[in-house]
Predict the 3D structure of the following.
Amino acid sequence: MTNEVLNELTIFVLAVFVGFEVISKVPTILHTPLMSGTNAIHGIILVGAILIAAGADSPVTIVLGLVAVTLATTNVVGGFVVTDRMLEMFKGRQRAKPARPEAVKK
Amino acid sequence: MSVAITLAYLLAAALFILGLKQLSSPKGARNGNFTAALGMVVALGATLPLLHFTRAGLTVIAIGVGVGTVVGAFGARMVRMTAIPQMVALFNGVGGGAAALVAVAELLKFGVHPQFAEAFPSVLSIVIGSVSFAGSMVAFAKLQELMTGTPITYPGQQIVNLLLAAAIAGFAIAVVALASIPFSFLSLMVLALILGVAFVLPIGGADMPVVISLLNACTGLAVAATGFTLNNFALIVAGTLVGASGSLLTKLMSDAMGRSLANVLFGAFGQVHAGATGTAGAQGRSVRSASAEDLGTLLAYSQRVIIVPGYGLAVAQAQHAARELADVLERRGVDVEYAIHPVAGRMPGHMNVLLAEANVPYEQLKEMDQVNDDFKNADVALIIGANDVVNPAARSTPGSPIYGMPILNADQAKNIIFMKRSMRPGFAGIDNDLMFGPKTVMFFGDAKDSLTKLVAAVKAA
């Protein structure tokens, strides 16, 4: 096994632990936005897609590159925008929360 | 790979982790999404110096990015709030498809005899990415109601799926060992696509959020595998993060429904047939329905009313009408609360958000554990477009697909007003005995219209 593969394997294993740890305490109402947010992050495949598309030189690679870049961009852009739309809705709730002690005072 | 690029990838990875951390608390969630998006921009920017364009390459990327941006942004902005879960399924599916295609392109480049270290992750990516793509499309179709939301099962289904998986393993080995046969790529992809469809078909529509979360984790792993093929740190780290956090999230989501993941994925096999025939007897039974005037009087002279909102309220955009009814009742001295089931609507938190938008006071929104003991003291449980979350079968019918899911005890209220568009079963595709109960009155119609009628009736009472 080459050094490079070993390095990659190390990164992979550490990232598994970080991934588990980082979201271990998430409230139910955030399950869907979090799923959508991680969905946008795996749009990083766009990096891979432009790497192969840039060097496209045959009909097969051109088609593969074109479809891959289109799909990956849709994943990234759509993923982040739709997550933002979901979280935008939480504003109402955020405002309602601090309003509570005031209401009691009155 | 130069030092600068590697450092930029490291920065991107740190931003992704930070973004995920922020996304898991209500306060920082929206910033977390921006942080992760910034990480994406950094990773893409750092990749630019790595590109060696052919003449066609630049055009291909420009067209792809252009089309993808328009489709993604347009789709995400235009979609109605109620349809957001299937949109997530769609965006997840295309990501999986992209991962599989990148792996195919890379494998083609290696030619006749690729190294094991390159062939193995490529094959993984092709298989997992294709399963994720096809599975997500079926999930989309089920949620969009392009196909039935009820589980689709047939005898021997598990054996067929097992054979499919075995065939895929066989082809995978052939690809890793021989690599030069283009036909084997294609077969591998086609088989994996079929497996993706076959895997999701037997899972009910109500369980789709859990399935999408699982496929989301799969896409993450496919991306990580592609990262191994391309020797690209950014792909490995980001893909693995999603794979791991997505798996945990999938477990948390099925826990929130009080079920094991295995029960969600394979629950349609075996037991359910008994349960389904058991409830089929409900078809012949009759229900009580009443006029708006009668129900208005019942509500107006109650002490305590608990409103149970569900997907029907979201579809009809009836949150403002619901609040109006609550206001009218409160002015008459009736105590009104909202009981929010964790999975009411089609995504967790759906109801809180809609009702907050209608300026329903935060303290009237009660979570299931807070409110469940109050139902027996309530005069009326007013169920607005909810169904599965109040179905007593979850407590009493072991064969039912929703058996074991914690439900709201609406059946313990003195009276139950069940507002529904029709007698059609809920999203899980099962009958609800509560509709036939002696204390239950059905009130058919669009949630918004019905609520407006009730408001008028309460005012007149």
